[in-house]
Amino acid sequence: MFNQRVMIERSLMMKKSKWLLGGVVLITLYYLFAFPTPMDRRAIRRTLYSEIPTQKMALYQSDPSILTSVYTNEPALCSLNEQELETIRFVRQDATVQATQVGILDYWQAYVIWRGQAVEKREAIAQVVVAEGRNEMTYEEQASLLDQTGKTFPVLVYPAPDPGKISSLRGLPILWYRWAGVNQVQVYIREQMDTGHFFYYWITLVKKEGQWLIACP
User: Fold this and answer.
1) What SS3 class is residue 39?
2) Residues 137 and 105: beta-carbon distance below 8 Å
3) Is the Cβ–Cβ distance between 179 and 33 less than 8 Å?
4) Helix axis angle, 38-61 relative to 104-131, nearest 10°?
5) Residue 159: C-alpha distances to residues 46, 116, 174 (Å)
6) Neighbours of 63 (CB within 10 A)
7) How is the chain split into domains, by residue range?
């Protein structure tokens, strides 16, 4: 009777050990597949941290190709809004462009081209105004500077960004990483507004040729 009791207790302990081992294995597998590796997390943070400086550099140099180091086109993962589509249509002079055909890289490249065209056009008109000794633009000149939404192209001078600010990866308000598919990850971001309130949102990144690129902000 005693031996039988010992055998039952041992059997129960073995079952508990198997359950515990199985739980550890499941948790380990979940961690491996649900979270990016430390190397991937660092690469993701570097991409996110360099987004704004890269935008500034592209605008400063009027070079949309610079943006390929940060953004990628994934229409299936991110649908552009109507204003973003209108910017692309305006630059391409193609009213048939649909959200299923373009991605976030297309939008930012079109935006850089549009701003470059705006600066060139305003500078050309300003030279004419100065040469003719006038104090302001004519109505036709002002109207020629309207964008596709009816807003006037602003006068903006983009200073060269400081590359040194990209070196530090501390302070990024990343709260959570979540795999979204093969070589895809969603990052949960928290940013503090000027009012003191916090703003939360997801950013989707895709890994291409060993580099993490923003597919949907």
Assistant:
1) helix
2) no
3) yes
4) 20
5) 22, 14, 28
6) 14
7) 37-169
> What was the pLDDT predicted at 68?
96
CA 69, 73, 79, 81 torsion: positive or negative? positive
pLDDT above 70 as % of the chain: 71
Helices within the chain (DSSP H only): 2-34, 38-61, 82-92, 104-131, 139-143
The DSSP 8-state label assigned to residue 195 in this structure reads T
Q: What is the C-alpha separation between 107 and 91, in angstroms, rounded?
A: 10
How far apart, in whole angstroms, are the C-alpha atoms of residue 27 and residue 23? 6
- Region of residue 62 (left: phi > 0; alpha: psi -120 to 50; beta: else): left
Q: What is the pTM of this model?
A: 0.71
Burial of 83 (0-12, 13-18, 19+ CB in 10 A): exposed
DSSP assignment letter at 106: H
- Tell me the pLDDT tens digit for each residue of 125-171: 888 888 988 888 888 887 777 655 455 554 555 566 665 554 444 45
Q: What is the SS3 assignment for 102?
A: coil
